[in-house]
Amino acid sequence: MFSCQISVKGAEGSAITTIEGLSAEGDHPLQRAWVAEQVPQCGYCQSGQIMRAAALLARSPQPSHDEIVDEMSANLCRCATYSRIVRAVERAAQEG
Ligand code: FES
């Protein structure tokens, strides 16, 4: 589910983590991997990409390549950074 599809009322009482909440120092494994793989192009989609990847790694710490591709295919990137996104998720899973 995308955050833009949830009303404020629908989120009432839920724990919400934003990209700023992943790490106060900006050194979450996904953030480090995103920098190492130079993932962003324009950056517009990147917060959502990283948060989807964080949710994936939270429930599946060592996802397969196909699992990453399948999960991340739900988030569009107009700059087509898909191959770098997959590499970054694989790196974060390895270094996590
Ligand atoms: S980096 Fe530009 S839309 Fe994804």
Describe this structure in words.
By secondary structure, this protein is an all-alpha fold. The chain has a single domain, classed as [2Fe-2S]-binding domain (DNA polymerase, domain 1). Helices cover 50% and strands 0% of the residues. It has helices at 8-11, 29-36, 46-59, 65-72, 82-95. α2 (29-36) crosses α5 and α4 (65-72) crosses α5. The longest helix is centred in the middle third of the chain and has 14 residues, at 46-59. It is globular and about 35 Å long. The model has no long low-confidence stretch (mean pLDDT 95). The site of FE2/S2 (inorganic) cluster has 11 residues, from loops. Residues 40-46, 77-79, 81 line the site of FE2/S2 (inorganic) cluster (FES).
Give me the secondary-structure topology.
Layout: H1 8-11, H2 29-36, H3 46-59, H4 65-72, H5 82-95
Helix pairs in contact: 2-5, 4-5
From the structure above, extract its key features.
96 residues, mainly alpha, DNA polymerase, domain 1, globular, binds FE2/S2 (inorganic) cluster
- Ligand kinds: FE2/S2 (inorganic) cluster
Poorly predicted segments: none
How many distinct helices? Answer: 5
* CATH structural fold name: DNA polymerase, domain 1
Q: State the CATH class.
A: Mainly Alpha
Question: End-to-end span in angstroms?
Answer: 24 Å
Question: Which structural class fits the helix and strand makeup?
Answer: mainly alpha
Please tell me the CATH architecture by its name.
Answer: Orthogonal Bundle
Determine the strand fraction and express it as a percent band. under 5%
Which sheet architecture does the biggest sheet show?
none
Estimated helix fraction:
40-55%
What is the residue-averaged pLDDT? 95
Radius of gyration: 13 Å
Number of domains: 1
Give helix and strand order, one letter per element, not per position: HHHHH
Global shape? globular
Oligomer: single chain
Beta strands, count: 0
Q: What's the CATH superfamily, by name? A: [2Fe-2S]-binding domain
Protein name: (2Fe-2S) binding domain-containing protein
InterPro entries: 2Fe-2S-bd, 2Fe-2S-bd_dom_sf, Diverse_Oxidoreductases
GO molecular function: 2 iron, 2 sulfur cluster binding; metal ion binding; oxidoreductase activity
Domain [2Fe-2S]-binding: 18-90
